[in-house]
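Appendix B, Record 12. Input sequence as logged:
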Amino acid sequence: MGKKGKRDKKGKGAEKTLAKLEKKVSRRAKKEEEDLEALIAEFQSLDAKKTQVIESSCPPPSPRLNCSLCAHPERDELILFGGEYFNGQKTFLYNDLYIYHIRKNSWAKLDIPNPPPRRCAHQAAVVPTAGGQLWIFGGEFASPNGEQFYHYKDLWVLHLATKTWEQIKAPGGPSGRSGHRMVACKRQLIIFGGFHESARDFIYYNDVYAFNLDSFTWSKLAPAGMGPAPRSGCQMTPTPEGNIIIYGGYSKQRIKKDVDKGTLHTDMFLLKAEGAGKEEDRWSWSRLSPSGVKPTPRSGFSVAAAPNNRCLLFGGVHDEEEEESIEGDFFNDIYFYDIGKNRWFPAQLKGPRSERRKRRRGRQAEAEAAGEEELQLSPPQGPLEIVKEVVAEDGTIMTIKQVIPAAAEDKDRSGSEEEEDEEEGGALGQPVEPCPRSSAMVAVKHGVLYVYGGMFEVGDRQVTLSDLHSIDLHRMEEWKVLLEMDPKTQEWLEESESDEEEEDDDVEGAEGGEEEEESSEEESEDEEGTCWKLEYTSCITKCKILHAQSPSMMSETVHSKM
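Logged structural output:
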């Protein structure tokens, strides 16, 4: 009884502290957000000029981060909305809408009147109601120099059947935030966590809100038990029973003036609905202790629902800070979490079926030859690791580890005799897979995982990707490349010392869009800053990057958002 009382007092004390901090951050951010409201209003006036729905075929979306990618609930399509792009000098924000046609492997741009304002780090969820709906909540707008932020607390729905946007104005919802998580669960949208940041302060949340899709009303949940610490960028997965699973995430705390400490969370919780179907659902938190092989600590990972009552985790980054450097490990691995068994396990690629057949035939031939003569067999091939070091002109050292994994053994050896008729030509090729990255956009449709874009860092420079890969989660044979990164190299502009140039480009830079990016390519050589070209590599599985200069704050921002 005494322990329970202490826990309750501790929880109430934490709530009071959080409330005070929220008021403090809100006061300081108010002036900052008022400045950006005028800029947002200007962009909305431009959007107001759209008077009709126009769907047109187009090239793939330009590179961007922190957008949303969702599978259409009824059609073989993926829906991409919003995002941001940073070229080293300016931040571009988007509110454009793209449709990826899976069967045609083609993109279309959908211009719809009265869209939500430009944003990134929002959350989106689809429901099958009335031909399909895409719901969007929150996110942020950044000034062109990336030093001021406006955090949204608005709720929008895109009616996919009629191609119309609608803003839902309902009181009692979450405060403005980004980096939160939102899932559709039993006719509700459930929102957890996130953060709010101003130029000087920040706050992380662990509150839970529910939006009823029938009554269009918000309610703040008060689950019993001890829940997760405040965080953003976590994994949030609904279960068939109507419960919610939370894993991992990122948060930071202020240790002293101008010194913050980041935390990678690796804990796991279950938010259980007790009394589902009654007028008022009761919720409770409980801690999960999963078995199996857990993902290594990381932030910036991507999550999606997977077949067979599982969810998956892809990619991410883990930074280790030393005295004068920061070393980052970027990943492109997949981990599955079996919801029913409460168990983590890493995904294993089986390799193309034709290659597995060749390996079986090779084993049979070796077995027959072994009885006739003694053969010198090469040892079993494990993963091949190749390490390269590249030194940039500014002294930054980039160490790239290329790991080519050994092909997985095929456990199913009951192939038919017709395998002998298979063509013998062609050596085993090097596996194709997404390069290591964080903050990738993922979606699953018909049991196939689609991975779009993401980013990795080289020194103080950020490489934003725009490629598209897929893998069949039932077969787990091999990755397919649906869209390669532009063979041209990634552009990066060093910070310019010209204040006048920044002032002139503020509005244009924040607006974003293809035209601005195209013009920036042409003018990049004339900028006072240096234009960097970074080659894209598609075969590495783990990228280690050593920052030889002072650690960049870029990582912390990305970790919080995704």
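The chain is about 15% helix and 40% strand.
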